[in-house]
Amino acid sequence: MRDRYLTFGRFLTANRRWLAGGLLLTFASSVGQTFFISIFAAQIRAEFGLSHGGFGLAYMIATLASAATLVWLGKFLDSVEIARVAKYCIFCLAAAALLMSTASSVFALVFALYCLRLFGQGMLTHTALVAMGRWFHAERGRAVSVAGIGHQLGDGLLPIAVVWLLIFMEWRTVWLLAAVILVVLALPLSHVCLSKPRIPSSADRDKFESGRQWTRAEVMRDVPFWIVCTGVLAPAFIGTSVFFHQVHLADIKQWGPTVVAASFVVLSVTSVTFGLITGQLIDRFSARVILPFFLFPLSLGCALLALLDAESAMPLFMCLLGISYGISSAVFGAIWPETYGTRHLGSIRAVVSATMVVASALGPGITGWLIDINVGFESQLLGMSIYCVVMMLVLFPVSRKLIRRNRDIVAVTV
Question: What was the pLDDT predicted at 87?
Fold first, then answer.
């Protein structure tokens, strides 16, 4: 009997346009991600006369506002074509980059940051994962993991490229260049890749999409949903906090200036590797089965980073963080359509995406405040490690409940 699952190479070839579209959107989202914006932090503070705390507050306000808007805006993916939403979001992200290149007041800066976070980190990532979740059923895990590679490519390539560009041009010109690239390259490519939706086979729809299709109101009343969302917070909160305070961390550890920067390569490689592995495991076992395990490497990494002073601690932490990122990105791209169906996936995922954006906004602010009141960052890392262990233990029974719920639905439909 012919194996219903394509080999990975054949899967990539057969679905290259849609997978390339998802990867394009996550890569383009880099323009609105923390790692990209923070490259210009020194220039922005100097230009607008902001302290570290002032810029951090502006960034937090913009990010929290984008999360609130995302809950409303994200649901349009349930009624508007994915390709059209993607094009609008790329255009708006380019406009936000253009505004960054011309902003002359703090108000304009905050509005530009709001748009960058909303259409970059928020909507483009959200659109990519909704597309993969809706267009792929039997191979959903692999599709999500391939689309997620765009995030890792952005992490690994863009900081080096921007630092090199800043040698030759003024920082505002780099933002103008980003806007031009989004309009000239990303916009037409998104149309080519996403204008024709992928239609899963009827056999896939019958097997993987049978049963209840939850509305967002129903999901919001489902206790397991909120418990899983609480686990979602950990990678976003911890990763953003460590990146934001990387200079402070290097100072207290007495590391050289290149130790943290060089470790980002380890993060990118491990994220891609374990994302692809997890995607194939999801297609075999389901995201519900794998759910609790993504927090273990993150917990171990936080503990080691807190306790070890050797320079090798940073790449080791990045390796473990990358494992957690890879697993969680694949799991959280697949678990929502698995558990709640695809009919209202846009509005459901909008809540999840907003939760992650809030975590990425609060992380630097809360940890910075704790540092100011003399709660050491290493002590905070130990607290983060404990949080991950507790949430992992909580997610095991939640995972079993979701598995039983799915079996009951299948039994009823059969």
Answer: 95
CB atoms within 10 A of CB 112: 22
Task: Give the residue from 327, 322, 328 showing the smallest Cα distance to 231.
Answer: 328
Q: What are the backbone angles phi and psi of residue 39, rounded to the nearest 5°? A: -60, -30
Task: Give dist(CA 136, CA 338) in Å, integer.
Answer: 11
pTM above 0.90, yes or no: no
> Are the beta carbons of 301 and 382 closer than 8 angstroms?
no
Domain ranges of the chain: 15-413
DSSP 365-409: HHHHHHHHTT--HHHHHHHHHHHHHHHHHHHHHHHHHHHHHHHHH
The predicted-structure confidence for 14-24, as pLDDT tens digits, reads as follows: 888 999 999 99
Length of the chain: 414
> What pLDDT, in 10s, does the model give residues 109-153?
999 999 999 999 889 998 998 888 888 877 888 888 888 889 888
Amino acid 369: pLDDT: 79
Architecture of domain 15-413: Up-down Bundle (1.20)
- pLDDT for 2 equals 46
**What CA–CA distance (Å, rounded) separates 147 from 393?**
29
Helix (H) or strand (E) holding 95: helix 82-102
CB-based contact 25:153 (threshold 8 Å): no
The answer to whether the CB of 56 falls within 8 A of the CB of 368 is: yes
Longest C-alpha distance within the chain, in Å? 69
Q: What is the DSSP string of 285-315?
A: H-HHHHGGGGHHHHHHHHHHHHH--STTHHH
Output the CA–CA distances (angstroms, integers) from residue 163 to 167, 261, 332, in the order listed.
7, 12, 32
